[in-house]
Amino acid sequence: MEFLTSGFREAFGREPEGVWAAPGRINLIGEHTDYNDGFALPMALPHSLTIAAARREDGHVRLRSRRFPGDHGFDLAGLAPGTVPEGAAYQAGSLWALLDEGHEIGGLDLFVDSTIPAGSGLSTSAALCCATVLAATGLYGDMPAPAEVARLAQRAENDFVGMPCGIMDQSAVMQSDEGRALFLDCRSLATEQEPFDLAAHGMALLVVDTKAPRRLVEGAYAERRRTCEEAVGILGVRALRDVTVEDLPRALDALPDEVTRARVRHIVTENDRVLKTVELLRAGLPREVGPLFTASHVSLRDDFEVSVPEVDTAVEAALAAGALGARITGGGFGGCVIALVDTDRTDACAAAVGSAFAEHGFGAPEVFTALPSRGARRLR
Ligand code: GLA
After folding, report:
1. Which of 165, 225, 229, 270 to mutate to test the pocket of ligand 1 (most atoms within 8 A of CB)?
2. Distance from the CA of 27 to the center of ligand 1, in angstroms?
3. Are 296 and 302 in contact (CB under 8 A)?
4. Residues 6+ away with beta carbon under 8 Å from 230
5. pLDDT tens digit string along 259-310?
6. pTM, full prediction
7. Would the pLDDT of 216 be above 70?
8. At 160, phi and psi to the nearest 5?
9. Which residue from 49, 125, 205, 283 has the least number of CB within 10 angstroms?
10. Can you list the domains of the chain with their CATH numbers?
């Protein structure tokens, strides 16, 4: 926190009025289900993005950071999609969403820092949008409920940045609890806090940042989403959430091509895996979710086709070294793998992933363990 406030002081020559933190997230299971009205089960990471902020009277916004390159400034008046440089778009979009929906906010000085590994699919962008909404509404005295902050942050990405993401990342950032996994119904937006005290069961969650370059992420993501929407039209359902595993064979018969069939098969079976995972957690059987994680990976690799060789290598190496289950987490096309491991296998799994990467000539991955942590909040 001292680093952040001294950074603010150096950048703006005055004291911040408040400090906010928003965590990164991993998704335990339920991938690409959010924009299909389905289920997801994310948790917040201990790593977070922090913002120190103070109001300005001139309607201007200044952005500074020691971590993210480029200093940016823009006026709130006339703010519209496409009017600010890329580096400022997430924060500008968050303030634009607030203004567009009638929130009375004014100018701001914002200083950002982050311990979330950037570019790894751990939702730095959702954390940045959520923290910006919290800082602006916190200082101007008009703070919405956490689920509403999540919706505004999603709107910033959808309508200002142009990323057609669902609501899973922002919900995880805003609504997660320590020691819990967040069960999210992306249609009703109902949430439940599920028990996920791994240490009490002698387990740990290993996160492998593969550092694989995330190429074509947005285009491929939008394409997956479009295919799901086309399938909805053909099947005459409200969303793929409404196709059950029992309905699946009939639904697949009605679809015109193998790619669409594979995408739909992933969404339908993935929703089912989330529900089964939640049942096991509620029954106090977290060890048994391992095979569901691995099945989710196989489905994302073969049916949804969002994996890359580095990610598959990490999953296979972790499983071969005794992980109970392992899968890609997040949108895919690179990013991170999670592996559920017995605590005494943690080092062996991490080492096995490192050696497998070296053998394949991939750059060294970063491996850490993570406990489910708290959602976004004001620090002072
Ligand atoms: C990205 C998106 C989310 C979600 C995941 C895949 O993280 O931002 O909305 O669709 O991909 O589950």
Report:
1. 165
2. 9
3. no
4. 260
5. 999 999 999 999 999 999 999 999 999 999 999 999 999 999 999 999 999 9
6. 0.97
7. no
8. -110, -50
9. 283
10. 2-193 (3.30.230.10), 197-369 (3.30.70.890)
